Amino acid sequence: MNKGNLLTYRPDIKVVDATVRDGGLVNNFFFSDEFIKSLYEANCKAGVEYMEFGYKADKDIFDEKEFGKWKFCKDQDILDIIGEKGDTKISVMADVGRCNYKRDIVNKADSPIDLVRVATYINTIPAAIEMIEDAHNKGYETTCNIMAISNAKESEIDIALDLLGKSCVDGIYIVDSYGSMFPEEIRKLSETYLEAAEKYGKYIGIHCHNNIQLAFANTIEACAAGVSYLDGTMCGMGRGAGNCYLELLLNFLKNPKYNIYPVYKFIEEHMVLLLENPDVLWGYDLPYAITGYLNQHPRTAIAATSEKRKDYVNFYNELIEKD
Predict the structure, then answer these.
(1) pLDDT at position 80 over 60
(2) pLDDT average, residue stretch 187-216
(3) 111 occurs within a structural domain
(4) What is the distance, to the nearest Å, from the Cα of residue 276 to the centroid of all Cα atoms in its chain?
(5) What contacts 131, CB < 8 A, 6 or more positions away?
(6) Whose CA is closest to 23, among 44, 64, 45, 52?
(7) Is the alpha carbon torsion for 102, 166, 219, 146 positive or negative?
(8) Is 117 helix (H, G, I), strand (E, B) or coil?
(9) If 0-12 CB within 10 Å is exposed, 13-18 middle and 19+ buried, where does residue 83 land?
(10) Given 256, 275, 294, which residue is the final one in a domain?
């Protein structure tokens, strides 16, 4: 286990760009081919280890007409974008109960995808392990991303880590889905995960949301504790309040392999247009902070932000009455 501090160079660090996957929740995955191709090229030039193209969603559950193609991440669509594959590996996310993985995730030898990240809640870990075993047997790298971990009990986390530790999964992710956690909590949770990782020979990753403006702080706190796979997105693009800013993360890491200039260029040429689009909304707003502090799902804050609500006292009272 490679523990360090905020000033240590860590060769075990891997950065995962989740802009398309988490950002796709903002615009229903309607990104232009030019955007995706430019993002992949920027990540390759910047030295980012992984780019998550989106979900492997079940088209029998989700209407393909209502979403862009990165909701489904068909292998041919990826190949059409990337052409000749660069150094940046390709990942996709598969949600428990929302992915027909036996049909839609083919053998690794026939796919450009390298890493399958299985997203699960703590109560569906056995189903997640079944998906992970399928992906592993097909030749993929795998992670298990345990969502909404701030709602889980310590005893539940211990059981989950033991089950995953005994499985074939390569890595286990801490996911602050509600953006409600503080650095002290993240450090404690990281130490718990890392203890299991050391016991079972896994690595640990972190994916943070920015509801209370702590996604970057929590990511580097986990990094300092020894967590090695770090998620970020361009300009923090992601559901609701968004995620850890990839450009902040790359500037922070003490690794000469990362080149920030392609990231700046991509932001200048593509993200500025998205940020100026009134129909594509993400980033900190008070309703997100309120749901974060209350440790609630941000769906109510997303609705409030879309409706341009400014009656923050009423919004807060509605949430505490439901809580």
Answers:
(1) yes
(2) 98
(3) yes
(4) 23
(5) 94, 96, 99, 101, 116, 118
(6) 52
(7) positive
(8) strand
(9) exposed
(10) 275
Domain that holds residue 156: 14-275
**Quick check: is 2 in a domain?**
no
pLDDT tens sequence across 229-241: 999 999 999 999 9
Torsion sign over Cα 241, 214, 98, 323 = negative
For residues 250 and 235, is the Cβ–Cβ distance under 8 A? no
Domain count of the fold of the chain: 2
Q: What is the DSSP letter of 87?
A: S
Structure pTM? 0.96
Based on the fold, state whether residues 19 and 136 are members of the same structural domain. yes
Question: Could you read off the pLDDT of 96-141 as tens digits, one per residue?
Answer: 999 999 999 999 999 999 999 999 999 999 999 999 999 999 999 9
Tell me, yes or no, whether 210 and 291 share the same domain: no
Nearest 5°: CA angle at 46, between 253 and 71? 105
How far apart, in whole angstroms, are the C-alpha atoms of residue 258 and residue 230?
A: 14
Please report whether residue 5 resides in a domain: no
Same domain, 209 and 74: yes
Burial class (CB in 10 A: 0-12, 13-18, 19+), 107: exposed
Q: Is residue 261 part of a domain?
A: yes
Are 189 and 172 spatial neighbours (Cβ–Cβ below 8 Å)? no
What is the rounded CA–CA span in Å between residue 41 and residue 230? 20
